[in-house]
Amino acid sequence: MTLEDIIKSYTSEPKILETLVNIKTRFQQSGLNVENVSLALLSVMLEVDKVRKLRPTERKQMVTVVLNKIVEDVCPGEDTHLEAVLKQMIPNLIDNINDLRDAKSWCIKCKGLF
């Protein structure tokens, strides 16, 4: 299944498809590794957030599937060690970023530090 097919299974919005493909292209050119996977993840998450019809669990699933496909396409060779490490990191990174979002939202509401 191609990245385009995966994205189309979640949304038919052409701008989101175009942006996610551009993210993949950018990381194909610069490379994807442990140091910059969080940047790729944030880029994908920001774009997936624009798909309003998805529930939170579906958003996480879409981000995971899209980013895993990007990792597969960008990392050279089949089942490289780097690919396996990056794929293991993705769900935990998503949860951590969502936890930070929730904490920031809560602190704004209570006029906390954030």
Number of helices: 5
**Rg, alpha carbons:** 15 Å
Which outline best applies?
globular
Total discrete domains: 1
Oligomer: single chain
Question: N-to-C terminal Cα separation, in Å?
Answer: 41 Å
The string of secondary-structure elements, in order, is HHHHH
Give a short account of the largest sheet: none
- Helix and strand composition category: mainly alpha
Mean pLDDT reading: 87
Task: State the main characteristics.
114 residues, mainly alpha
Write the topology of this structure:
Elements (H helix, E strand, L loop, with lengths): L2 H6 L5 H17 L6 H12 L7 H19 L6 H29 L5
Helix pairs in contact: 2-3, 2-4, 3-4, 3-5, 4-5
